[in-house]
Amino acid sequence: MTPLYALQKITRALLTVLLIVSTVFIVLRLSGDPAIYVLGLDADPQALDAFRTRWGLDQPIFVQYLQFLSNCLQGDFGYSYFEERDAMEAVLERLPQTLLLMGVTGLFTVLIGIPAGVYAALHHNSWIDRMTMLVSVAGFSLPNFVLGIFLILLFSVTWQLLPTGGSGTWQHLVMPVLTMTVAEAAVFARFTRSAMLEVLHQPYMRTARAKGLRWHQAVRRHALPNAAIPLVTVVGFFVGTLIAGGVVTESVFAWPGLGRLLVTSVANRDLAVVQIIVMLIACSMVLTNLIVDLLYGWLDPRVGSLRTGN
Amino acid sequence: MQPLLEMRNLQVGFATELGPVPVVRGVDLQIGRGEIVGLVGESGSGKSVTCMAAMGLLDDNARLQGEIRWQGKRLATQNDKAMSVLRGSELAMIFQDPMSTLNPVQTIGKQLYEAICINHPERMSRRKLQTRALDLLRDVGVPAPEQRLKAYPHQLSGGLNQRVVIAMMLAGNPSLLIADEPTTALDVTVQAQIIELLQELRSKRGMSIILVTHDLGVVAETCDRVVVMYCGEIVEHGPVSKVFSNPRHPYTHGLLASLPRIDSSDTNLEPIPGVVPHPDQLSEGCAFAPRCPHAAACCYSGSPMMQCSDSEHLFACFSPFPVNAESRQAHAS
Ligand SMILES: Nc1ncnc2c1ncn2[C@@H]1O[C@H](COP(=O)(O)OP(=O)(O)O)[C@@H](O)[C@H]1O
Ligand SMILES: [Mg+2]
Fold first, then answer.
1. Which of A37, A99, A110, B201 is most buried (most C-beta within 10 Å)?
2. pLDDT < 70 regions, chain B
3. Which residues are B40's β-sheet partners?
4. What confidence tier does A21 reach under pLDDT thresholds 50, 70, 90?
5. CB of B116 within 8 A of CB of B171?
6. 3-class DSSP state of A204
7. Strand B5-16 relative to strand B62-70: parallel, antiparallel, unpaired?
8. A82 and A144 belong to one structural domain
9. Using CA positions, which residue lies closest to atom 18 of ligand 1?
């Protein structure tokens, strides 16, 4: 990986963030007059004017945009009209719960998805391979909310083993994590399997064995490390589905995280909170992809370097 | 003298969705010490599969019958553990496309060290490992070997990569090197260099080489014997001088006739008509009969047996080309 490659990727990431922040600003301005949202359609015109002056909404749009950017840079992300406090504070309070859910799900996804995919690839076309893929398709096609409700019916209503929602104990974590892991591990197993299959048929695997390596040695030293490289690239995609799945799953299980906050804030027209969460999601995607790009460039020497033949 | 490698009635079939496909159909082959044997035939003749069978590297869906012997001992070609001991230390193989034969994300050095370590039971220090790797690279004529150790395969040319692969295969000092079209993917000048290197390996190390190639010119220059394969069978084999000066099988004749010759005023090349049939669409009788200009009625019913042109030169054909005058004279004298 050349420094130029890294610089390119970092610049692109920063530009993307700026683009996202700007888009968020524009969309929120287009979505209507915040004064009316907050004070209501039949509010006193004087109160509306006062509100607009108070929040700078009477300024030209360009000035508002610059003001918005400068506020963001200073860490002022607006006021939650609904919770009546700093919006960032409200969001940060929910962040650990979401990170917990995503972290545990991510861990199980990797622990289940990767071995399943590797195993299926190594036993390509065997009945185990076919079963793994069948389960994976099923897991992937099942919507989170359907699986979630099904689990609640089974574990909470019928067997009364687990709480239907909320958080606090590990029992609360079981069903949300299970719901999300099923879909994520299914995708991961598929990616792992195809990455492995691709690598297993590469000529260098044959060379490794011609040198005297046994099959399992060649798999360990050449196939697994090489298959891990394309897998790294899907992590960005993975984070995206994790966030999307989290919004649904948190709502189903009343999990007090960002996903649920997003849904309730949209319903309550709590624009500052929505804005922060959208930016947070976007930035975490950009950051993940930046890390993936840099990691990829580091793992694969062919990336970002010119061929120098003799 | 006992041959190094011997195949007796080797048959390889592949289990496919359409049923079993016979790809190698009864190959008898012997490779002696220090010999270079050319293996020729059009694409799809089963040359690579024959080689891979000897290495114990056939795909999982392969079904092997007959026997392969190494220095008289029957090889358990399906036993990965037993074969891995032999691979690298007794038999080694190089392949067609050197740009994809090496692991693209590991340095040349790392891959060379691996080859050295596998073939040395006792642990080697980093220093010794590096010295050995540099020696190997020098042996195969890689310039500036110190810098290559840190390079990745994509940073080297195809010819250099092929040399690196050869160096890796020499790590265990094998007695037989199977070279499956080692120069097909390379530039003409580089091709000649690699062939020269192979000849050098034979003369300096006494290594036996099986050279699979499309280039009959290279065979004429480098090989002691030539084996001609068609549709999974050997149709003719013998010393290069005899087979090329007096091909008895029409297929061998066709291969030679489709070759541009410098020493001949005859400029109209005649490619063999038709194409190689797919292994699961073989007709009864001689597999070459449908494309053969000499084919007689009997060619479509029975399979010809191997017969002697002389004690070293054999072919399998019902209506062979006659022994030509040159050869008859050579015989008489
Ligand atoms: N794993 C496999 N499954 C089915 N058929 C195969 C397999 N490997 C090789 N073959 C078939 O074997 C035939 C001979 O192949 P090969 O030995 O590569 O020919 P050559 O090296 O002479 O060009 C081809 O028709 C090919 O399709
Ligand atoms: Mg081949």
1. B201
2. 261-269, 326-333
3. B228
4. confident
5. yes
6. helix
7. antiparallel
8. no
9. B48
Count CB neighbours of B247 within 10 A: 25
Separation in Å, CA of B178 to nearest CA in chain A: 10
- pTM of whole model > 0.90? no
**What is the reported pLDDT for B204?**
94
Nearest CA to ligand 1 atom 5: B14
Largest CA distance in chain B: 69
Q: How many residues does chain A have?
A: 310
Whether A183 and A107 share a structural domain: yes
Distance CA A114, CA A106 (A): 12
Q: Which of A200, A205, A207, A231 to mutate to test the interface with B (most CBs of B within 10 A)?
A: A207
Q: Give the ligand at the shortest distance from the Cα of B46.
A: 1
Among A125, A201, A211, most B C-beta atoms within 10 A, so best to mutate, is A211
Instruction: Write down the architecture of domain B1-90+175-333 according to CATH.
Output: 3-Layer(aba) Sandwich (3.40)
* Domain shared by A54 and A189, yes or no: no
Q: By C-alpha distance, which of A172, A184, A182 is closest to A252?
A: A172
Residue type present at position A192: T
Ligand 1 within 6 A of B186 CB?
no
For residue B122 and ligand 1, the question of a CB distance below 6 A is answered with no
Ligand 2 ion: Cβ-proximal residues, 5 Å cutoff? B 48
Prediction ipTM score:
0.91
Flag if B160 and A310 touch (Cβ within 8 Å). Answer: yes
Segment 53-72 of chain B within 8 Å of chain A by CB: 55, 57
Neighbours of A14 (CB within 10 A): 12
| CA pair distance A31, A102, nearest whole angstrom | 31
Q: Whose CA is closest to A302, among A226, A242, A189, A234?
A: A226
| End-to-end CA gap in chain A | 21
Q: How far, in whole angstroms, is CA A173 from its chain's centroid?
A: 18
Cβ A175 vs Cβ A155: under 8 Å? yes
What sign for the dihedral angle of Cα A236, A240, A241, A247? positive
Domain that holds residue A57: 3-86
